[in-house]
Amino acid sequence: MQITLSSQAKPLYQYPLYWAECFGTAPYLPVSRAEMERLGWDSCDIIIVTGDAYVDHPSFGMAIVGRLLEAQGFRVGIIDQPDWHSAEPFKVLGKPNLFFGITAGNMDSMINRYTAERKIRSDDAYSPDDIGGRRPDRCSLVYAQRCREAYKDVPILIGGIEASLRRIAHYDYWQDKVRRSLLSDAKADMLLYGNAERAIVDIAHRLSQGEPIGEITDVRGTAFFIKDIPEDWQVMDSTNVDKPGRLEKRHSPYEMIDQSSCDDNKQNTPKSVEISFSTKLERLQHKLQQRMKTVIRLPSFTAVSRDPVLYAHASRVLHLETNPGNARPLVQNQGGRKIWFNPPPIPLSTEEMDYVFGFDYARLPHPVYAGVRIPAYEMIRFSVNIMRGCFGGCTFCSITEHEGRIVQNRSEDSIIREIEAIRDKVPGFTGVISDLGGPTANMYRIACHSKTIEAACRRPSCVYPGICENLDTDHSALISLYRRARGLDGVKKVLISSGLRYDLAVESPAYVEELVTHHVGGYLKIAPEHTEQGPLSKMMKPGMGSYDRFKTLFEKYSKRAGKKQYLIPYFIAAHPGTTDEDMVNLALWLKANGFRADQVQNFYPSPMATATAMYHSGKNPLKRVQRDSEKVFTAKGEKQRRLHKAFLRYHDPNNWPLLRDTLKAMGREDLIGNSKQQLVPAYQPSTSTDYRSPRKKNSYAGKHGKKPQPKQGHILTQHTGLPPQKPN
Fold first, then answer.
1. How far is it, in rounded angstroms, from Cα 111 to Cα 35?
2. pLDDT score of 686
3. Quick one: which of 33, 368, 449, 618 has the most CB atoms within 10 Å?
4. Average pLDDT score over residue span 598-609
5. What is the third-level CATH fold of 382-519?
């Protein structure tokens, strides 16, 4: 087997169209044989099986991939939320000519189905009428097995966020054990990770030309089984935590290079002589080429499942190999079989992003769902995705693992065209765009000053522990976009609902002023996540100094605009690195600042996240992992996690007995009492009905002889005297 990888990418729109392009564009991708017949199709070339209800909108993965493949000339059908108890529903569109493409949907199916406390959810925002249970646990695995039963000889490709986060041996929170790669469990032919437009287009065309799936080994962002490592590849053995393979230090393209080492004919050249910038770049490029023929051998599934320290080590190696500019392939033994993981895909250019988002999406659920509510669609139908990717690197977040840390942007014109399409085509539009955003609201067109430095960088975050000096934090492109969007005819308001990276925002006060003056609907959500350095260092989040700076600007510009607007900060309980003392300090900060949480979130160990490796192993993979390296405390078990959550809801009388006992055990009786400086009262209300939502003044209704009021829906409130409002 030969594996040859390229650092260049063919633009998505330059492939010759498949012959079936003569059938044209479907109003919706067909979900039934009757629809196929109306389109004149006798078969589908590709069938996408998805765990979400089919919504023909670019916020839904099945729609983007389906429309992209259609634009390449292929006939694409959709099987959405099939009954998985037999193979028959997977035959509804017949046998695909090229392959089945399987995705669990926009969320990992286990996270979609279970709460952070492993309780079954009754709802599912991606299903009709918000009803849960329309997809199986480990959705991609089950669908792949049923597709194999339906048609044994059809290639099966699995992708989407569930496949991305489960591509290697990974800790599974719900079973509390390490599971094999999803590729291995699902017995699929290939796994596509990340945003897979490049991979799936290339593979589809090669399969259509008769190339066997087993011979397609050079596509980035893919994983597949191999028998042996090719002989022309060097192997860096990183299977032992005590003797790890050498992890190369970061090379600066501006480093001083010994001229004599570059030219053997110049024997008398002094070592201190500087060389030209172009030669330094050539040397760097040579090093990158050497890396491209080196594969890293990870500890095997058996090893990481038995040894949490090795698991943490494997997690660190994986996350160091995520930059498409310098990542090396990985190989991992899984029960006697080897899985090869090619480096991540080359990010899409702005032109390619415009191409992908510019298809003639119906922007509606498939007509089969006429009159049925799909909450996830209702949430995004008036929103626009302006970019993808995130360089924040928060350890608890899955965005970077899936979409990558290089931000990919759409052009301003493309975004404006989509807003106009919403205005002109989407039923119920009242003139309000609910969001212009993405994984982060304000990373649009923010990137490294130098493409060369970006390609060489191995930092997990561009903004932690501080903003990288090479990061261009100019927000002018975003300000221009906001102004143009809100100036469109028929657009009354443009709100920003995506999470805001406030440590970036404070670098551009002009942006904060623009945002606060025109794009906040009373409340703005931001996520400090914690106040204490211990957990923040494990999250790779900035300290509260950045929050305070942003709050000052927010209040200044709100006052200047003559608006009463409020920040809604979000916090996580029980994150790795969080002690009981940290939660006490966070609760005291909340009380001192007048915040009371109605709903709070405990840390959720999602597959493959760095914080999940901390949770499972008790080690910190942000640093080199060794047997005696830093230990990370994590709140585990129902009681400990409940305690940390209770500190965030210090105002709820139901939590007071637990908090009193804990504070006494910690020697902090000084925080028990009725003064403003104390955390919980010394008294206990006679009944739980004495508790009243913190959205209301005079929180304890029983004390004032009033009937208890129902809780409001949003997460964190500040006592403002305003009537309850839902944040944007």
1. 33
2. 78
3. 618
4. 90
5. Transcription Regulator spoIIAA (3.30.750)
Distance CA 575, CA 529 (A): 9
Residues of the chain with CATH 3.30.750.210: 382-519
Residue extent(s) of CATH 3.40.50.2300 domains in the chain: 13-216
User: Quick count: other Cβ atoms within 10 Å of Cβ 664?
Assistant: 12
CB-CB contact of 408 with 440 (8 Å): no
Tens digits of residue pLDDT in 409-428:
999 999 999 999 999 999 99
The dihedral built from the CA positions of residue 249, 253, 258 and 259, taken in this order, carries a sign that is positive
**In angstroms, rounded to a whole number, what is the distance separating the alpha carbons of residues 152 and 74?**
22
> What Cα–Cα distance (Å) separates residue 108 from each residue in 82, 111, 154?
17, 5, 25
Residue 667 CB coordination number (10 Å)? 7
Amino acid of residue 2: Q
Give me the sign of the Cα torsion angle 613, 619, 625, 627: negative
Q: Is the omega angle on the peptide bond into residue 465 within 30 degrees of 0, that is, cis?
A: yes
**Predicted structure pTM score:** 0.89
Residues 13-20, mean pLDDT to the nearest whole number: 97
- Annotate 156-179 with three-state secondary structure: EEEECHHHHHCCCCEEECCCCEEE
- Domain 13-216 annotated CATH 2.40.50.140: no
Residues 200-236: b if buried by 16+ CB within 10 A, e if exposed: bbbbbbbbbeeeebeebbebbbbbbbeeebeeebeeb
Query: pLDDT tens for residues 615-638?
Result: 999 999 999 999 999 999 999 999
Residue in the block written with tokens 């629809």: 35
SS (H, E, C) 575-615: CCCCCHHHHHHHHHHHHHCCEEECCCEECCCCCCCHHHHHH
Supply the pLDDT for residue 685: 85
- Which residue do the tokens 């211990």 mark? 534
Q: Cα 536 to the chain's mean position, in Å?
A: 19
Q: Phi then psi for 80, rounded to 5 degrees?
A: -110, 135
State how far the Cα of 10 lies from the Cα of 593, in Å rounded to an integer: 53
> H-helix or E-strand containing 309?
helix 308-320
Enter the tokens of residue 645: 């959550």
Task: Please state, in angstroms and rounded to a whole number, the distance separating the CA atoms of residues 247 and 621.
Answer: 14
Asked if 120 contacts 178 with a C-beta cutoff of 8 angstroms, the reply is: no
Residue 6: closest CA among 292, 402, 412, 287: 292
What pLDDT score does 387 carry? 97
pLDDT reading at 710 higher than 50: no
Running DSSP on this structure, what letter comes out for residue 709?
A: P
pLDDT in tens, 441-478: 999 999 999 999 999 999 999 999 999 999 999 999 99
Q: Rounded to 10 degrees, what is the CA torsion of 307, 313, 317, 322?
A: 80
Contact 728, 523 (CB under 8 A): yes
- List CB contacts of 246: < 8 A, sequence separation 6 or more: 236
Q: What is the pLDDT of residue 252?
A: 37
Q: Please give the pLDDT value at position 371.
A: 87
